[in-house]
């Protein structure tokens, strides 16, 4: 049976190219909102951080109606660090809308998601958005997109895709540039005509592959997936099985079943093949589980969840400072919060350490972890984190492997030299260089993830804020050897789980200094001038500065240029601790060493 009443689509877009605005507009025009009601909240990026950083982390769904056809829009994560998510999500849909900014053109992150869509043979609608921008260059951008398709070995059919021009902001789409814009109808029409309806046998044995997990305080875990086969009903008995875990075989009863409608979920009693459903009431439901008829429990294979590549310690901030303002966080709070995150974020790993004061949190890249840190800070959690460390692996011969990233960099020509120099010294290999007409240079580097830790801040300084860097995990490769960081002057020290690590700091900017002596850790700000140790000046560390720097490890490591472990003796060569101690009673706050 063809479900002509349904279309399942995903929208792919580079950050800021207008995906959220477009979905909001489709929702508005599809009549979900009464005409006098504004879209109060932006639909897909409902998380503050996502909004600020312009990325979509967890996939959320929405459904709009056009001519009695339900269009399920499955959100795709906008950042490639969440690559595993993308593939699973795309398995639920029958086609994608690729949104590309009419000025900026195709971007590397778009390429990553698009490649996955093309590999899955999904039809693509190209939507050139922001055509209202005065500097828009839609025709050129179309050529660029077609080039991208060819780069990605798109089939002839895929190359023959429809193009639409839109201004999500003004709420209209057109098929030809000389058309008079009216509304979003051309996009709605293209979606229902070009994207195939899902198909299947409603009478076959039930199979629902759980592709994402939602979490709600009241109902707990909610599995979201497509009915791949048959029909699922309330009160039906199902077998919960998993293709990667043959041991998992559990009989469950479907107590609550929902479909998506606008921004909400509505309860239904039955859903047939092709529908996107949400199921609550099964505590043990996980991504990759299949709900099947008990008499024929066949698990559907799924894309394995991407493994973490980077770890940080999250530590209880037991400093006397922590109690003064903000929320005091006990290890139980921290633990609960971190483990709760695992309900919805499957790429994250949280492990206990030898002490209850500290947890090892691993994720996909620096960005992934820094988003979590920021989220938790906003919720009022006070805690400390160590700097990021990459997770190594060994191959079957015991050779050390490390995570590698592709870095795509666009910089004005005059900065290309310094970027190449810096990244090369961080073991990056230049794999491509392209000078565009506008004086901008595109550089492509393969670089150990380790070499990128802390690089972004430096990059911004080096390119005077004019550079753009995008990175994509490229898999594990042979360990590239130690990175020799050059000494740049003044000193910074920061804590890791077990010890206090001292490192050199690029003294062009301020940084926080931690000096460990015996059981005590002293903290202060240093302001270095001319990058010379003798110019280092120690300032009083206000609580705010201390917590900020210590707790937002990712941000901090963005500023660090030369993390390197020094012994205390070596560290003392750079800074006079006695002098520090002298100002201790009045100015410097003392906190207990985290791990005695
Ligand atoms: P997302 O990151 O892809 O979800 O992008 P958003 O929808 O958040 O849009 C990013 C920015 O582009 C916002 O400031 C929007 O107002 C703006 N924007 C979105 N669509 C358009 C458009 O059609 N024209 C113009 N001029 N700006 C747009």
From TrEMBL:
One BP annotation, GO: ribosomal large subunit assembly
Residues covered by the Tr-type G domain: 4-199
Subcellular compartments: Cytoplasm
CDD domains: BipA_III, BipA_TypA_C, BipA_TypA_II, TypA_BipA
Lineage: superkingdom: Bacteria
Listed EC numbers: 3.6.5.-
Main location: cytoplasm
Subunit details: Monomer.
NCBIfam families: small_GTP (TIGR00231), TypA_BipA (TIGR01394)
Protein name: Large ribosomal subunit assembly factor BipA
Organism this protein belongs to: Anaerobium acetethylicum
């Amino acid at each position: 049976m063809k479900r002509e009443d349904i279309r399942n689509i995903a929208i792919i877009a580079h950050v800021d190219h207008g995906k959220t605005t477009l979905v909001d507009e489709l929702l508005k025009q599809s009549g979900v909102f009464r005409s006098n009601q504004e879209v109060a909240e932006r639909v897909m990026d409902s998380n503050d951080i996502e909004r600020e950083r312009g990325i979509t982390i967890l996939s959320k769904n929405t459904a709009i109606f056009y001519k009695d056809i339900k269009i399920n829009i499955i959100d795709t994560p906008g950042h490639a660090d969440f690559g595993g998510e993308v593939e699973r999500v795309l398995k639920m849909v029958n086609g994608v809308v690729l949104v590309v900014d009419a000025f900026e053109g195709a971007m590397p992150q778009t390429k990553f998601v698009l490649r996955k869509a093309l590999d899955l043979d999904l039809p693509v609608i190209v939507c050139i958005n922001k055509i209202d921008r005065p500097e828009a260059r839609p025709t050129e951008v179309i050529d660029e997109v077609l080039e991208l398709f060819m780069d990605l070995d798109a089939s002839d059919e895929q190359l023959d895709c429809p193009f639409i021009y839109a201004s999500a902001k003004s709420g209209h789409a057109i098929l030809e540039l000389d058309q008079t814009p009216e509304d979003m109808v051309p996009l709605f029409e293209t979606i229902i005509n070009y994207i195939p309806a899902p198909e299947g046998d409603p009478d076959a044995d039930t199979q629902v592959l759980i592709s994402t997990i939602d979490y709600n305080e009241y109902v707990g875990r909610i599995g979201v997936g497509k009915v791949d086969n048959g029909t699922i009903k309330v009160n039906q008995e199902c077998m919960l099985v998993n293709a990667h875990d043959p041991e998992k075989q559990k009989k469950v009863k479907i107590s609550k079943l929902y479909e998506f409608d606008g921004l909400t979920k509505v309860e239904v009693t039955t859903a047939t093949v092709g529908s996107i459903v949400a199921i609550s009431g099964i505590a043990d439901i996980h991504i990759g589980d299949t709900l099947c008829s008990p008499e024929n429990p066949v698990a559907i294979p799924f894309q394995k969840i991407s493994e973490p590549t980077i770890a940080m310690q999250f530590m209880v901030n037991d400093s006397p400072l922590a109690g003064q303002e903000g929320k005091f966080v006990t290890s139980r709070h921290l633990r609960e919060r971190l483990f709760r995150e695992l309900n919805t974020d499957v790429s994250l790993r949280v492990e206990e350490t030898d002490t209850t004061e500290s947890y090892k949190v691993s994720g996909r890249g620096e960005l992934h972890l820094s988003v979590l840190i920021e989220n938790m800070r906003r919720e009022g959690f006070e805690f400390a984190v160590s700097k990021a460390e990459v997770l190594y692996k060994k191959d079957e011969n015991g050779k050390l492997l490390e995570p590698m990233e592709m870095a795509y960099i666009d910089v004005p020509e005059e900065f290309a030299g310094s970027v190449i120099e810096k990244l090369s010294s961080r073991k990056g290999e230049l794999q491509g260089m392209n000078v565009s007409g506008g004086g901008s240079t595109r550089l492509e580097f393969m670089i150990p993830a380790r070499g990128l830790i802390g690089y972004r801040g430096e990059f911004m300084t080096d390119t005077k804020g004019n550079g753009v860097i995008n990175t994509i995990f490229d898999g594990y490769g042979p360990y590239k050897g130690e990175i020799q960081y050059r000494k740049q002057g003044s000193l910074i020290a920061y804590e890791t789980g077990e010890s206090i690590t001292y490192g050199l700091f690029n003294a062009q900017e301020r940084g926080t200094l931690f000096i460990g002596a015996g059981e005590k850790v002293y903290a202060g700000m240093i302001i270095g001038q001319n990058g010379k140790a003798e110019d280092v000046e120690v300032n009083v560390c206000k609580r705010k500065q201390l917590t900020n720097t210590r707790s937002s490890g990712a941000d901090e490591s963005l500023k660090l240029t030369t993390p390197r472990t020094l012994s205390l003796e070596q560290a003392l060569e750079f800074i006079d601790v006695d002098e520090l101690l002298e100002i201790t009673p009045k100015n410097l706050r003392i906190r207990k060493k985290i791990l005695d």
